[in-house]
Give the backbone structure.
Amino acid sequence: MATIEKEVLNQPNMKAIKAPTLAEAVEKRDRLTESTGNYYGVKELSLKKADPIRYERFYSKLHSAVLAARESARFVAASPGSREMGECLWGITTAEGDTLALSLGFLSHTAIFPTAVRYMAANNYDVNDGIEDGDVYGVSDGLTGGVPHPGDFYSFVPIVIEEEVVAWAVGINHLMENGAPVAGSWATFSVDTFMDGLVVPPMRTGRKLQQESWWKAIWERRTRAATMNILDDKMRLAGCAMIHEATHKLIDEFGIDYYKTAIREVIEESRRRVLDNMKSTMVPGTYTGAAFRMAQYKGLQTIWSHADKNTLIHIRASVEPNENGLKIDTEGTSRWGHHAYNATPGASDAAVFLGMINSFSHNTKVTAGIELAVQRHYPKGSILNPDNEFTSNANPWAQTVTLNNIGFGAVSRAMFSFGYLEEAFCVDGNWGAWQGQGTAEDGTAYGFTNFEWLGGSSRGAWCFKDGEPLVWAAWSQMATIGDAEEFESTVPPMFYLGRKLLPGYFGAGKYRGGPGESAVHWCVEPGQHIGITRPNGGLSSTTSVALGMNGAYPGPSSFMISARGTNLDEVNAKGLAPRDAREMLEMTDSGLLKVDDLKVWKTDCPELSMEHNDLFVDAAGSSGGWGDPLDRDPMAVIEDLDSGTCPDYDFVNEMHGVVATKNGSGNWVLDTSATEAKRIVLRQGRLDESVDVKDWWKAEREIVQNAAFFPEVGLMYNESLSFDKFRDEFTSFWNLPREFNVLEG
């Protein structure tokens, strides 16, 4: 136990001293960091200065341990989500939970690790229960563990030297199914945390690097994908065991005193480098952004009457460079609600640091140093920091990713302003997924999530070239959509008819965004039952503001299509099959594919029961453009027409002002003079439709004064107006009394 007395090594004449408790260690860390402005009070990098080779060799061994854990453990035992797509991460932290080294994967979780450790410290886990070397702790709770949503699961293994916790090995992965009423990884239609699935505060689940027997029963009794989840649990622990062993060997080699000093210098070193990077790339100022998302529960959530309503969620944030790094202020964001889309500060951090790490930790060690350089303000009571401990946090990514887009986009704009063109691109986060549950013919129950469109999206346009498809995942360094066959194995009745880039599915601009992707899933002999839901990736019916950069258009939202009751057998007999959303809709419009019940879903949908020959089609991953579409190189438009990347001539004619005809070979030929004339007409049309900003302001102010809004919009404004900063901005801009209330007019 951490409180048992110990003798100071190599000092036999000194009195026995007590190892610090976790609470004491956290208090000392905070006191020294706050009073000095340096991590743990470290002002000089003494070890690095005295022997830089030894110092770097120390860290290299630490970093190698977590890298090896990831590359080995996910091939020992893992679900397709972890093995194929790398929806996982391993790391090592200080005793206080501050990150020292991370593997590839979910890097942004670096800011979350302290939440669980600090909870254990504040509740005296080491004093009351004891924390032994090689214990195993599990956590999936956002409030007490910082975990973004219960679909993410953490394993913590303490590393104890002479009865003192000196480090934690941590493993994370995204579960295939987490046992909520709505099956899958992200429960929709949850109204509070009691509907979120397997929500576990930090709790000991094993000892001596081995899980307790009862822990296996939890996975079997409380989740629908027990086999997959048990495999992932073994994977996390296997990686943590590797880190545990490597750290003990490292301490044996370098000594505990060197270890304690070095880890603090490593974090302070990275903090300084991150701060330098921020100052050299960020133009001073305030970068403000907003995003919106609809939680459409009205008519679908009829059991809990207080949740039977639609909610328009407003995500608002500003990024403000300062002497201490950056401040991200989210005041004005909507208040929490009785829906699945609330977050916690930990989940908000997980999103914010996606962009922060990628932008500022590229030339230094990825440690808690990045966290120390970014100040966050999540007002209490907001959707990002509820003042109700029982809110649902089942599906926070849908809007916290937009928070990342605002922050990351601000960095991209700042770098562009500084002239760093290679780093300036349209940041987007239009991901998607689908999930559900089923019962096979023999009665075997299963649950699943298809992560493919979470693993790889298109990159938004750069300021000097088009974006690329399938290469971008803000949450991981290795975009991959995984093998279709792997996902077919997890959902027995669903087979791929096609998986491909979706033509025309991107934001237009001088440079267009990378095309998104689409897949068609065919239900074949579903057994007793299969039900599918959409966990609402992307932005759900709405788009983030200004995610088309410098006059470009944002990428279209993610969506899905359900086609139930089809004549697919007849279509297949003709040697045909729809391979993406466009082809399916074209076949339906032509009458070739007959569908009894066709629905396009851009927001929450109830569980859809699928029958033989039903189709489920999804699309995600589109991204925004950069620059005025009328400035696009006409030959680039011709190339998109010829390649089928954008097959609609009428669209490009009006969007880009390009005039072309097909030649005898079926290729498009540009009419240069007609294109120049068309663009002049389109630019003049913009001027003809425009109004003076004073007239626009007067007309819009009248709408605001009269509260001429849909109910959801009025409620959204009132929630944001409950925060002083937004109220000051709103009433000042519209020249209204400060006590103005939208719903009351």
